[in-house]
Design goal:
Layout (H helix, E strand, L loop, with lengths): L2 H26 L7 H17 L23 E3 L9 E2 L2 H14 L15 E8 L2 E8 L2 E7 L5 E3 L2 H4 L17 E10 L1 H13 L8 H9 L4 H5 L3 E12 L6 H10 L9 E4 H15 L7 E8 L2 H7 L1 E2 L2 E2 L2 E5 L4 E13 L4 E13 L2 E7 L3 H7 L2 E2 L2 E5 L7 E5 L9 E2 L13 E10 L2 E12 L6 H12 L11 H9 L14 H5 L6 H13 L5 H7 L7 H11 L2 H6 L2 H4 L7 H12 L1 H13 L10 H6 L2 H7 L7 H10 L4 H6 L2 H7 L2 H11 L2 H16 L4 H9 L7 E5 L7 H10 L3 E3 L8 E4 L5 H9 L2 E3 L1 H10 L5
Parallel strand pairs: 2-13, 23-24, 23-25, 25-26
Antiparallel strand pairs: 1-6, 3-9, 3-10, 4-5, 4-7, 7-8, 10-13, 11-12, 14-15, 14-18, 15-16, 15-22, 17-20, 18-19, 21-22
The protein binds ligand D41.
Length: 789
């Protein structure tokens, strides 16, 4: 043998071994080891090598086999009509070549620039990224489901396909062929995939690299109960064995299948000629990111079945169909390093620095790694070869490590002990779970730099947030100028902005006389902020604009917000315990307090005054008792208690068991007594009550407050979807006007607000003659009552 032939033989063996390994991972383990694009490259290299050295082709080469191998755990199914594979077009030219071959095969004149020739009609549909299956219907009943396998033999997955919600077990209507084998793709929507992975993560089970693996892994479960719990869907794209009559075109058949209850693509279209096919390709390509499921291209099929028969197939690919692929969303590259970024709230997050690689047409050099748990989950080491995935407009992600390519000198990823920006300590966050009056603390996934505004990274982002449009809206301060102000030590806290002088500003890069004056004027103009904007500007973790508005509206003073106890904060609409603790902790922090005090010296914060009616009306003793999370005492028990003890917390605390038993059954009565036998629990309850009083709220006067409100004594019901406000918001509005909001309609109901999708409650309302408002009518009424949205 010559040298080159020997080298080729060596390379061919290597490629076969590698492809065999990947095939096994992919088809048997459902755990691809490399991206499809990389597999295709290796495969094409092997094909090219074998074409050049035909003597080296052996029957066991991966090129000599189509598709995968059947996994023995399932029974075998022989496909009487083989399940063919699809040829690929990667460029527009490939598609034009395909169209030309179709014309030649059919003896049709090829079109020219002057519109001559005949246009062939093509059925167009997205190419779903799932796995091909065959469903066999006999006399309209689903009798068998099978995977494609190698195209001639697949696996019997009948029990599993039956669990797929949109697979009809019995065909609708009538007139179906006595034997009808339909073929299509089983896939998972992007949302279903995300939900499944979230669930897997929660259960510490293995997550899937992409929706296709998730679909494959779910369909090939030996336990159909597992399959049933996976969000699988089916979409029909063709037929196999048929005994009976069907329409004479591809589109006609699919439309008929749809009538019989089989799902087909909503994007199905008929195109005349190659140019309309290309237009379809571009249109779907543009909408790729916004489709509910992943696709890796579009498929074109000659529409006329007589033409399909005439064209036939070559090897195992029909000459009448082609897949026009989109750029791959996954590629291989190298992890050069992991760096750590510090966010506005001090979160230290790992970022992957990658050897730049083009993924779906875009150069990618960085990818987020979320947190150290994710790094551990991936088993990532610096130097690793990794699979990068860019799904739509989403930030590129590292989805998998290619373990077999790990170099000997790979290094572990380590969280720095000191903040890379300011050198302060980096601490692991704590997860505090509170329920039934108990706290359990565990380690969180996040790490935080404790440097606060002493950390340049946090300070810069805090300032950028503070001046942003929805916060204090100080125009003229860009990211670059903030960097400069911080780096030169001119600004160490938001309060320092107000000390800037003309001389200092005009020295900054990009500032001239006029722009400096404008900036100083903008800073001066920001000195009378609305309370809500000010709260938002502080950048409290988890407090966005909405929560800031709620805080400002309900508590109506910075002093109250600063001291509010977490339980008191949870009286506010849409503030849960987690956020309440974040807010409370933020204001308890000495450093934050000093920054806020400095700002208070300078600013005249607007919109402070009386406690909001909304808050006042929602603070009940029953609510407080409920918030204490006493075991076995829910909202109803809390209400009974409050009523029984005349709205006096003191009386509840002093109650003996017999008193309690008059209001509650044995178990909750025991629980209440036990709970309040702990002095800290009593103290806490009294502290909350004291704060509510201090804020100007009295249980005894609750009734009076409510009685003076315009909707006092009325019960309202909300049903269906509201579009302008959330149901919680609508409920809060109604309660602030004195109404009660109930979950069920009765003759006593004053009014039902019904959005789209309202069902039985709306029916009941009309039955009982209860007034009904749509959302527009409801908003109108709210406006009449002087409430703004
Ligand atoms: O959406 C798909 N993945 C899809 C796959 C489709 N829309 N049409 C297809 N048509 C065929 C032929 C033309 C051979 C009946 C296919 C596939 N085949 C296919 N899927 C996997 C292997 C072949």
């Amino acid at each position: 043998m010559t040298d080159t032939a020997a080298n080729a033989a060596q390379r061919i063996l290597e490629l076969r071994a590698e492809l065999d390994r990947h095939n096994h991972s992919y088809y048997v383990l459902d755990e691809p080891s490399i991206p499809d694009a990389e597999y295709d490259r290796l495969f094409r290299e092997l094909q090219a090598q074998e074409a050049e050295h035909p003597a080296l082709v052996t029957a066991d080469s991966p090129t000599q086999r189509v598709g995968g191998t059947a996994l023995s755990a399932f029974g075998e199914v022989k496909h009487e009509v083989p399940m063919l594979s699809l040829g690929n077009a990667f460029e527009e030219g490939d598609l034009l070549d395909f169209d030309r071959r179709v014309h030649e095969g059919l003896d049709l004149p090829v079109g020219d620039l002057f519109g001559g020739g005949a246009e062939v009609e093509y059925c167009c549909e997205p190419k779903l990224d799932g796995l091909a299956v065959s469903l066999l219907y006999e006399n309209g009943l689903l009798v068998r489901g099978a995977t494609r396998g190698d195209g001639s033999t697949g696996e019997n997955i009948s029990t599993n396909v039956r669990t797929i919600r949109n697979v009809p077990l019995k065909l609708h209507g009538e007139g179906w062929p006595s034997v009808l084998e339909v073929r299509g793709e089983v896939f998972m929507s992007k949302a279903g995939f995300a939900a499944l992975n979230a669930r897997q993560l929660e259960n510490s089970s293995k997550t899937f690299a992409n929706p296709r693996n998730a679909a494959a892994g779910s369909l090939r479960q030996l336990d159909p109960k597992i399959t049933a719990n996976r969000p699988l869907e089916f979409c029909c794209y063709g037929i196999g064995r048929v005994e009976g009559e069907l329409p004479a075109t591809q589109v006609g058949i699919l439309q008929q299948l749809k009538v019989w209850g089989l799902p087909i693509s909503r994007e199905l279209k008929l195109a005349r000629g190659a140019n309309e096919c290309l237009a379809y390709y571009r249109d779907i390509g543009e909408r790729r990111a916004s489709l509910a499921y992943e696709i890796d291209g579009v498929v074109f099929k000659v529409n006329d079945l007589a033409y399909q028969r005439e064209l036939g197939f070559r090897a195992r690919e029909p000459r009448w169909a082609i897949a026009h692929k989109f750029p791959a969303m996954e590629e291989l590259t190298e992890l050069l390093d992991v760096e750590f970024q510090v966010g506005r709230t001090g979160a230290v997050t790992p970022v992957a620095r990658l050897k730049p690689v083009k993924v779906a047409g875009v150069m990618v050099a960085n990818a987020t790694l979320h947190n150290m748990d994710e790094v551990a989950r991936l088993g990532l080491m610096i130097g690793d070869t990794v699979i990068i995935r860019r799904a739509g407009d989403v930030i590129p992600q590292v989805v998998q490590v290619v373990l077999e390519r790990r170099p000997a000198d790979a290094r572990p990823v380590q969280i720095p002990e000191q903040c890379p920006v300011c050198g302060s300590a980096v601490e692991r966050s704590q997860l505090i779970k509170r329920s039934k009056g108990r706290e359990t603390i565990s380690e969180g996934a996040a790490y935080r730099c404790v440097g606060r505004l002493a950390c340049g990274a946090q300070l810069k982002q805090a300032i950028i947030h503070y001046v942003s449009r929805r916060a204090l809206d100080i125009e003229g301060l860009g990211e670059k100028s903030v960097d400069q102000l911080v780096d030169e030590g001119l600004v160490r806290s938001p309060a320092d902005l107000y000390k800037l002088t003309f001389e200092q500003v005009v020295e900054l890069e990009g500032f001239a006389e006029l722009s400096s004056k404008n900036l100083l004027a903008a800073i001066e103009n920001s000195k009378k902020p609305e309370l809500a904007r000010f709260i938002y500007a502080l950048g409290i973790p988890d407090v966005g604009e909405e929560t800031a508005k709620v805080l400002a509206r309900s508590l109506a003073s910075l002093a109250r917000i600063k001291q509010a106890l977490p339980e008191v904060l949870t009286y506010l609409p849409e503030v849960g315990l987690e956020v309440a603790y974040e807010i409370h902790e933020f204001f308890s922090d000495a450093h934050n307090r000093s920054v806020i005090e400095a700002l208070e010296q300078i600013l005249d914060i607007q919109g402070q005054g009386e406690l909001g009616a909304e808050f006042a009306a929602s603070t009940t003793l029953a609510g407080l008792l409920d918030k204490l999370h006493i075991a076995s005492v829910g909202p109803t028990g809390a209400k009974t208690l409050a009523a029984k003890f005349g709205e006096s917390l003191q009386k509840v605390l002093e109650a003996d068991w017999l008193d309690l038993r008059q209001a509650l059954s044995e178990k909750p009565a025991n629980a209440v007594r036990e709970f309040f036998s702990v002095p800290e629990h009593c103290e806490r309850a009294l502290k909350i009550e004291a704060q509510l009083r201090e804020f100007g709220m009295h249980w005894e006067s609750q009734k009076r407050v409510v009685e003076g409100l315009p909707l006092a004594g009325q019960t309202w019901v909300l049903t269906g979807t509201l579009e302008v406000m959330s149901r919680d918001q609508a409920k809060a509005k109604l309660e602030s006007l004195g109404a009660k909001v109930s979950g069920s309609v009765s003759a006593k109901t004053h009014c039902v607000v019904a959005g789209p999708g309202a069902g039985s409650k709306l029916a009941k309302a009309s039955e009982l003659g209860v007034a009904v408002l749509d959302e527009a009518g409801f908003l109108q009424r709210m406006l009449e009552l002087g409430l703004t949205t």
